[in-house]
């Protein structure tokens, strides 16, 4: 019986890891990504004033991970733009989210139950991207473990890592913070995921890649759906990170006022939250006001 | 008779599209480009304090389109710098424009009739660059229509697209605007040109490439010469764009006060004009004062 | 007798230019580079708040020259990260300098006599990097003299050329200055060295490469050790540069108040010194206060 269960799990994981992402999962990815772009203050005005800038930002949100990974591996940064159907689908989503009459499409996809499903599908794509990034880097650099982690990381985090420059495209400049200084949950999870997948690729983990994909997907989906439903931006890693950083790097425990105190001198500690971590409620209000 | 006329036009277009650009046309391109650099406030001071920074800016003005296109296609960004004669010619122009005794060279080339000829020659080069960029991208990505448009676009627009970073090299930082948010006429025309040449390359336009090059060159030359002569920065596309954007993207008609009103919240709407669109008169006064 | 001396010198230069840099010289390079990172105001706070950002900055300090050269030649910017042992060594140095209990490691390596030895070893690596960069570019572009100079230059200067973006990673943004506008001694020396090595590669200099490496290394080591020992930031090129720039580029002689006067209008002349030129004493005080 147990053997059967394991076999079945292995088979299921295998099938799951082979499942095509286009178009359903990719569509969800585009919708959630461009939704987050619309939540950004000022993005609606930019879409009115300069549709080209708005479209470019939307493409960065949808394909930033491919662009960054291609740069890291020395390929053409717009290599992925050869997939016309993907670009057209993402462009259609961008148009519907920003310019649909009565804002109908936006209202549908931002409706919480719908959004939770889309967020779940997006996390499935994210995990697959990390695994593909690590695999791709492994192919190019057989023992380049750091390169594998970096490529998997940028594949998972995407536009967040270049948010300063994405904002610059929209005429916004916030040099006092960036995604590396203040990592959001998806960025952190991408880093840990990239490390796990690299360890799997180097045969340091006693699991098959398909099982790892399945397990990591389940973790990401449940965590992200829970966080979106609760409008929370706490991270499940907070406690363990706090202790590890305290022991290894002498970071203050809790990270509360002491952190604040320290930071004041160096970089003006900014009250800005990172992209995906901003309270959804606040963002929606902003987005509504902007229209 | 008519057949003969068509044949002749075809032959002429063929010959025109095969005509070499080096050195006469390229020289005009370098002169006009570095002239625009000298019009930039502060560039004369930089040329005195740091000749290396000034030279680098001049190279970006002259070869920015090659650098950007090479980046987009994943080649070495300084690949074009292997053409020593082009670099030396551009460097000579830079030296003469910035350091010629009595500012003699600058006065000659900035003299309106001379300048109009040079501007006309520059637009010939621009059109050829767009066509070459689209063709090059078509060679690398046979069905990558978006890639063709992007490469043609950056080949036509050149340094304008990275003006924020070119300014940073001179110690100037204006994050609230960029060439994508506020497109100048040459940038817009490059975008439309890149789309046209891509359609031609994909056989969606019933004209030969040489005829398209001829027609687009004529359009660019007449428009740009007229605009330079009139010190105008209105765009011939303004009316049709205004209506298209209104219908497709809900942009306010006219783009005047309403636009201003909207933008005020998001990006502080800046009174800065883009590089090539600044009134020539104002710029000349600034450049003179700076000397 | 004289022939013998020349032979011996040639042999010695040959042996010196073949000497392996890993691990001793590279270790010194990493230590001095990360020491300079710790001198940067705010870097200690960043190491507490975000170890990932601090590690990335350290990697940029250690491997910035490889990253830049790879970008310039169109390879993967993280190509060098395939050398796991180098990355691990640099990471160990980073950990020891920033997190060693009682700040012991930092105190040891920042102790002047130790530091002078390390600085000397670092300059040996710098010269070798310039020579290797020029040689690498020569291999790719046989007559691309400008490309050789550029690649040799970025190999010698490393992170200094992208210090604006390295600072941005730490949440600091100083757009009014950069390493090109205000070149420090190592950056200038790298430029001159790259020109010399390019001339040697093009057979315009009547010396062998190994002799040039030996002579340039001796010059760099003595100058840099002397400057570090004296806490000086004067450049040995100052006088000759001042006259050359005055004759060629009309720069004001002396570069003192007149320069200041000119710059005031354009870029707000900043009192910030560049990285490696800041008085060591002041920096140490800052670094100590920050802990």
Automatic annotation (TrEMBL), chains A, B, C:
It is found in: Nucleus membrane; Sarcoplasmic reticulum membrane. It catalyses: K(+)(in) = K(+)(out). Residues 258-291 are annotated as: Disordered. It is a multi-pass membrane protein. GO terms for cellular component: nuclear membrane; sarcoplasmic reticulum membrane. Homotrimer; conformation seems to be controled by binding to diacylglycerol (DAG). Intracellular monovalent cation channel required for maintenance of rapid intracellular calcium release. Acts as a potassium counter-ion channel that functions in synchronization with calcium release from intracellular stores. Opened by a change of voltage within the sarcoplasmic reticulum lumen. This is Trimeric intracellular cation channel type A.
């Amino acid at each position: 019986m147990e053997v059967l269960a394991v076999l079945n799990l292995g088979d299921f994981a295998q099938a799951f890891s082979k499942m095509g992402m286009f178009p359903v999962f990719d569509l969800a990815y585009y919708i959630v990504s461009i939704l987050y772009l619309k939540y950004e203050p000022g993005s609606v005005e930019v879409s009115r004033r300069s549709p080209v800038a708005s479209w470019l930002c939307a493409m960065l949100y949808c394909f930033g991970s491919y662009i960054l990974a291609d740069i890291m591996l020395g390929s053409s940064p717009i290599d992925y733009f050869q997939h016309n159907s993907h670009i057209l689908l993402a462009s259609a989503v961008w148009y519907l989210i920003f310019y649909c009459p009565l804002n109908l499409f936006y209202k549908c996809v931002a409706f919480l139950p719908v959004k939770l499903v889309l967020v779940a599908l997006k996390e499935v794509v994210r995990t697959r991207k990390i695994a593909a990034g690590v695999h791709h880097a492994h192919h190019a650099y057989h023992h380049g473990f750091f390169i594998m982690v970096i490529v998997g990381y940028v594949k998972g985090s995407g536009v967040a890592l270049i948010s300063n420059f994405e904002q610059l495209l929209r005429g916004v400049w916030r040099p006092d913070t960036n995604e590396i200084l203040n990592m959001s949950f998806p960025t952190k999870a991408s880093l840990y995921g990239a490390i796990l997948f690299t360890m799997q690729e180097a045969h340091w983990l006693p699991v098959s890649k398909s099982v790892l994909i399945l397990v990591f997907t389940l973790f990401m989906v449940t965590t992200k759906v829970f966080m979106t439903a609760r409008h929370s931006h706490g991270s499940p890693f907070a406690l363990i990170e706090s202790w590890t950083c305290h022991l290894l790097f002498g970071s203050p425990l809790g990270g509360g006022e002491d952190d604040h105190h320290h930071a004041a001198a160096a970089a003006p500690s900014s009250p800005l939250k990172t992209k995906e971590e901003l309270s959804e409620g606040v963002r929606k209000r902003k987005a509504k006001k902007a229209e």
